[in-house]
Write a structure and sequence with these properties.
Blueprint lengths: L4 H17 L14 E4 L3 E4 L31 E4 L9 E6 L8 E9 L10 E2 L8 E4 L7 E10 L5 E2 L5 E4 L9 E7 L5 E6 L5
Antiparallel strand pairs: 1-2, 3-4, 4-7, 5-6, 5-8, 8-9, 8-10, 11-12
Keywords: Disulfide bond, Receptor, Signal
Organism: Triatoma infestans (Assassin bug)
Protein name: Sortilin-related receptor-like protein
């Protein structure tokens, strides 16, 4: 079977959506099913760019037949980790999203330690829904990679819009723990021999 260009694009969008949602399936939050839309026969766009007042498709179909702003899908498309606030146990995520003045949004930051040895990612909601556009994840492990993302919903609504991306960031290094199993052996009147095990926490 030979797929058309449109079918190929839809399949590409579906694969991207599948790969994105796999790490988030443990969140147990009801989210809308779709994450991307396709246009121009070759590109996938986040649903957050549909009816956002900016033409992303060459043919303008992403801004046609738009109705009330409450029908829009809102997604965080732009976010960054604040490198100035990063330390060994915390990461600060900032994001921005264009919305009409009449629309009030709430955000749910989530975090997952990057899994090792092909273990599944375990995402954790870091806080209750907030209205700020920045959040500091705390009580993290030093020098550890984390995936960060943000869910969106309309203020007071139960309908949750899924993330379209996540960022990977690493906490700073920390001071090592003291060496352990230290022993001292007197060699002679001017020399001693020290022996220890490497720190458990690098």
């Amino acid at each position: 079977m030979v797929l058309s260009n449109v079918q190929m694009v839809l399949m590409k969008c579906f694969v991207i959506m599948y790969l994105l949602q796999q790490p988030l399936q443990n969140l147990l939050i009801p989210v809308v099913d779709l994450v991307f839309f396709s246009c121009d026969g070759s590109r996938c766009h986040p649903l957050g760019r549909l009816c956002d007042g900016h033409i992303d498709c060459y043919d303008g179909t992403d801004e046609s037949n738009c109705t009330d702003s409450t029908d829009r899908i809102y997604q965080v498309i732009h976010m960054v980790v604040d490198e100035h606030k990063k330390n060994s146990t915390s990461l600060t995520l900032r994001w921005w999203i264009q919305t009409p003045a009449s629309v009030k949004l709430e955000f749910l930051p989530s975090i997952s330690e990057v899994p090792k040895l092909n273990k599944p990612a375990k995402w954790i909601n870091s806080t209750k829904w907030i209205t700020d556009k920045d959040y500091t994840y705390t009580n993290l492990l030093p020098f550890t990679k984390y995936n960060l993302t943000v869910f969106v919903r309309l203020n007071g609504s139960e309908k949750v819009f899924p993330p379209v991306l996540f960022l990977t960031a690493t906490t700073s290094e920390d001071l090592p723990s003291p060496p352990w199993n230290l022993s001292v052996t007197q060699k002679n009147g001017t020399q001693v021999h020290l022996k220890w095990q490497v720190p458990r926490k690098p």
